[in-house]
Amino acid sequence: MKYYLKKSSILLTLTGLIFLFCTGSVLADFLDVARKTGITVQQDADGAVIWTGKFGGQNKPNGPLGGKKIGVMAASEFSDHQAYYFMSYIGEFGGELEFVLDDHHTWKETRPNVSANLPHGMWGLNLDAPRIMGGSDKADKWVALSKADPKKYDAIIIMGGHSGDVMVADPMATEFLQKAVDNGAVIAGIGAGIMPMIRIGMMNGKKCTGNRTVDYMLKEIADFRSAPVIADGKVITGRDTVDSAAVLRALCKYFDPNFVDEHKDILKGKTVMIMITEDWEDIEMSAPMLELIHRGADITIGLFEPQMKARAALLGLDVRTGNFGCTVPIQEIPLSYYKIIKEEDLKMSDFDLFFIPGAFNPWQIAVKHREWLKDAYAAGKLVGFICHGAIPIAAADLVRGKKIAGWMACYDSVTIMGGTHVTDAAAIVHGRLVSGQTPPQVPEFVDAMTYALLRE
C-alpha cells in the first residue's frame, strides 16, 4: 500500500512539474511574441510584470506591416466598432494608419459635424477627433477623400456599416479605389464595405466572403464561401465586424507570407466578463472585445445598475450607452458571440477575469458596487481595469502594495489607498490586478489580460 501511495505521490509531483513547465513555456512564448513588436516587458523584483518603453501606446516598429501605409476608408454611417479596432491594432503590426474620409458625398449623420463636412459612424464616432486616442501616433492621421492620393497607400481597408452603400454611389470614392487598385494596393472590405469593390468589377470571379448585405451579389459574380475571411491575391474580404481581427491578420499574411497568427484561440476555454454600468469609453470596450473574441475567449457582458443614466431619454429602458454612443446590446455583434448577464443573475463561476472600461463607467461602479468588487477579488478572480478603471478598485481597497497603470485622474485614488501609480507603464500585471493606461494602450492591456489568464 505504501508503495502505491509513494508511486502516486511521485506521479502527481511529476504531473505538477510538467504542468508548471508547460505553463511557464507558454507564458515565455507569449511574452516573446509581444517583445518582437518592439515593446519592453519586464518583471520587477516584487513580481509586477510591466509593459513599458517608448513604444507603449504607439505604433510598433516591427511587424508584417512594417513600413506599410494603410488607408481605412469611411463614409457616413461607417462601423464605429471596426474603426476602434483598426485604430488600436494596425500599429501593433507595424503599419501606419490613415483614415480616408469621404467628404464629397454625405447622406445621414447621427451626430452634428464637429469641424468639417466629414462622416460620422453609425453610433456617432467622428474620426477627425484624435483626442479619443489620448496623445498617440496611432490614429491622429486622417485625410479628406477629395485631397487623398491613392498612390501612397500599400493597402486600403473599406469598413462596413452603411458606409459602403454611400461610397458605391459616389464616383469620387469609386475612382479613388480604382486608382489604388491600378497602383497595386491590396484591397480589403468588410461586409457592406465590399459594395464599392463590386462596383468597380474587382470581385468578378474572386474567392470571397461577405455578409447578407452583399452575399446574394457575390454568389452571382464571384466564388463565394461562407467564412470569416477569404484572401484571393490582393483581394481580402471579411464577413462582418466580429471578423475585423481576422481581416487584419490576412493583410499581415499578404505582406509577410511567413506570418503566423500566434494569438488565434490562445484563450480557448477562458471567460472574460466586461463590467458595464453607463458611459464607458467605447474604444476601451469595443477593441478589447473584438481582439479577445479572436483570441478564443468567451465573452460575457455583466450589466450593473448605474447611479444615473448617461442619456436621460433612455431612462426606463434596458439599454446602456457608451461615452461616444455605442450601446449594449451591441447592435453590430450578434449575441451568438457574447452573453449579457444582469448583476443579480451573475455568478462568480461565470467568468475567470473581469475588466472595467474607463471614462465614467468606473465612477458609477465606485459609487454602487465596491462590495461586489471585494467579493470578486476574495473569490480569486482576475481583475482588469483601464484608464479611470483604477478608481473603483482603489475605492474597494484592493490596490494596497500594488503597482497600477492608469490615467492621471486615478493618481490620488491609487496613492491615497496605498498603491503606486506608474505613469510610464502601458500595462501592468501585479498579483491578480491587471491595469492599463489609456485608449492608446488597449493592445498592451489586452496582452496583459491574456498573460494573466494564461498564468492561472
Protein architecture, described:
The chain has 456 residues and is of the alpha/beta class. It has 2 domains: 39-57 and 265-455, 3-Layer(aba) Sandwich (Rossmann fold), CATH 3.40.50; 69-255, Rossmann fold (3-Layer(aba) Sandwich). 31% of the residues lie in helices and 19% in strands. The strands form 5 sheets. Strands 1-2-21-22-18-17-12-13-16 form a 9-stranded mixed β-sheet. Helix 1 packs antiparallel against helix 13 (442-455), helix 2 (80-89) packs across helix 8 (282-294) and helix 8 (282-294) crosses helix 13 (442-455). The longest helix is centred in the first third of the chain and has 35 residues, at 2-36. The radius of gyration is 23 Å and the shape is globular. The model is unreliable at 1-15, 17-21 and 110-115 (pLDDT under 50).
CATH level-4 homologous superfamily of the largest domain: Class I glutamine amidotransferase (GATase) domain
What is the gyration radius calculated from CA atoms? 23 Å
Rounded average pLDDT: 90
> What is the helix tally?
13
CATH topology of the largest domain: Rossmann fold
Structural class: alpha/beta
Largest sheet report:
9 strands, mixed
Low-confidence stretches: 1-15, 17-21, 110-115
Provide a short characterization of the protein structure:
31% of the residues lie in helices and 19% in strands.
Structural topology:
Elements: H1 2-36, E1 40-43, E2 49-52, E3 69-74, H2 80-89, E4 96-101, E5 142-144, E6 155-158, H3 163-168, H4 171-182, E7 186-190, H5 195-199, E8 207-208, H6 215-221, E9 223-224, E10 229-232, E11 235-238, H7 244-255, E12 271-276, H8 282-294, E13 298-303, E14 320-321, E15 327-328, E16 338-342, E17 353-356, H9 361-368, H10 370-378, E18 382-386, H11 390-395, E19 403-404, H12 411-416, E20 420-421, E21 427-430, E22 433-436, H13 442-455
Parallel strand pairs: 3-4, 3-6, 4-5, 6-7, 7-11, 8-9, 12-13, 12-17, 13-16, 17-18, 18-22, 19-20
Antiparallel strand pairs: 1-2, 2-21, 10-11, 14-15, 21-22
